[in-house]
Amino acid sequence: MLENSYKPIFIMLISLVLSAALTYLVREAAQKFGFVAKPKLDRWHKKPTAVLGGVAIFLATILIYLAFVPKTSESLVIIAGSSVLFLVGLIDDILHIKPYQKLIGQIIGVAIIIGYGLVLPWTNSAILNIAITAFWLVGITNAINLLDNMDGLSAGIVAIAAFSLAIGFGASGQFSELLFLSVFIGALIGFLIFNFNPASIFMGDCGSMFVGFLLASSVLLTDVGGRSRGIVSILAVPALILFVPIFDTTFVTVLRKIWGRKASQGGRDHTSHRLVALGLSERNAVLLLYGLALLAGLFSVLVRELQPVQSIAIITLFTVVLTLVGVYLSKVKVYEEQQEELALQNQAAFGFLLNLSHKRRIFEVVLDAALIALAYYGSYVLIFGNFEASENWTLFVKSLPILIVLKLSAFLVVGVYRGIWRYTSIRDLVTFFKGVSLGSVLSILAILLLYRFEFFSRSIFIVDGLLLLFALAGSRMAFRVFRQLLPAANVGDGCKVLIYGAGDGGELVLRELKNNPDWNYAPVGFVDDDPLKTGKVIHGLKVYGGNGSLKTICRDNEVEEILLSVRNVPPARLKEVKEICKELDVSLKRAFLKIETVDFE
Q1: Window from 204-218, 365-379, 571-585 with minimum mean pLDDT
Q2: pTM higher than 0.90 for the full model?
Q3: CA gap 487, 484 in Å, rounded
Q4: Helix (H, G, I), strand (E, B) or coil at 497
Q5: Domain with CATH 3.40.50.720 in the chain
Q6: Which of 100-109, 358-367, 508-517 has the highest mean pLDDT?
Q7: Helices (H), 196-259
Q8: Mean pLDDT for the chain overall
Q9: Which listed CATH number (3.40.190.10, 3.40.50.720, 3.30.10.20, 4.10.400.10) goes with 488-597?
Q10: Which one of 102, 139, 410, 601 has the lowest number of neighbouring Cβ atoms within 10 Å?
């Protein structure tokens, strides 16, 4: 037993070492014979880089599998189908075949898998299950191919997904399948040694198609893939395991359709690219997506163990959060405005949809309906624990529709839907409190009139109100939270500016600069003549003392511009500041309602 527990690790390490050695050899051969990816406008890398790294992944996986893993008919079929995809990708890397030709190759691989009888049993219809499985295999294969857009991203995400799947194999007692995936994980990590930022080799289509198809096919081997206890696990677990490629592909496809671009063409508009546009380094953007993949993998394990309703609640909450992330990322500009305007002219229908003023409100209403349901369910869980098999479940189900309707109506009445999320303030929090309070009162009255409040717990509605207020405020503050968590674009690259005045006006100026990265300002700090403010910090920027040290501050921080946020600067002090700016060749501007140049005369 102890030997078996260490065998997956042992096999993974052997595969890792072999893959690393093969990757090194393939990289040298690719560079020698000219198999390199040259930089293009629609690609991310900036220098010629060796390709065909998928050859190393393929060989390491096949060789270690044949040498160490017990053979099953299912794993042999998956190896056969994945090998077909590897050959199709290799031909594409060398000869650059047409997309429809690659699709034919993918269909051949799908036919091998389905022909053996491996399908996702998601419905009671055999024909429908076959269609779903074919769509799953082709979709995930191409999703991994699209995800291969930044150093280390695709290989790392697939390794994390395979690890999550391996946990399911171990929990189900499928030791042969666990060893099979251990080989695969080791091959991916060995390749990552050379592929992580800065990458010296790419996997190419032969790699992305092989690893994508093998991973998608491996889901069919396990109880996690559909032979489990409930419909939630059947549907949710595979999607969670492969969440990042599914999310990225859906996100990119929708936005490209909106902007009139082909979904199949390359581009620099993926999730990873938008994170970099927000100010993250390439490495940190990839690591952040690794973290999301790990979180989704953790949820996939929880979903297998929890009750179906609890699983639905977790998945809904996860979906809400990621929807907010997607909406935030969709606002990041990755193409020139002229390109976007041209796309809208060519796609008038999409332009019309984008300009509908009520579209955002519809999204808010749908989001709030989900938050109301989650808060109400969470209150029952906190009060009663596992209540699905009790009478409280009946009370929850019959009262939930009433709460959703009444609370949404209350939000509408008090003005929750009049605000703009990015400007959410304390005043808006008061509005949210009024909306939640009114909704709770109306809900209690309705339940009192309809059911005389029999068997309902009063504490449920108190906890529900608190949870809903937190969820409502959190969702509206989400964009501001994202902006604080993620570094602003162009920080360090724009005009280095010092804000004169560390009061309310200065804080507003800083917020406006951060909200408008296209102005290309990089704030380096505040300066204030009030000695009590010296050394304080506002939104991460230090407040310097201005009396007698302004010239030194400007030189030390390489300041190019000073923004006056104080309206009434004493004439003598303003004259002194002007003289210092003239001496150091630093621009001086006022920044109240707008930024304007100060007359030096």
Answers
A1: 571-585
A2: no
A3: 7
A4: strand
A5: 488-597
A6: 100-109
A7: 204-218, 231-241, 243-258
A8: 83
A9: 3.40.50.720
A10: 601
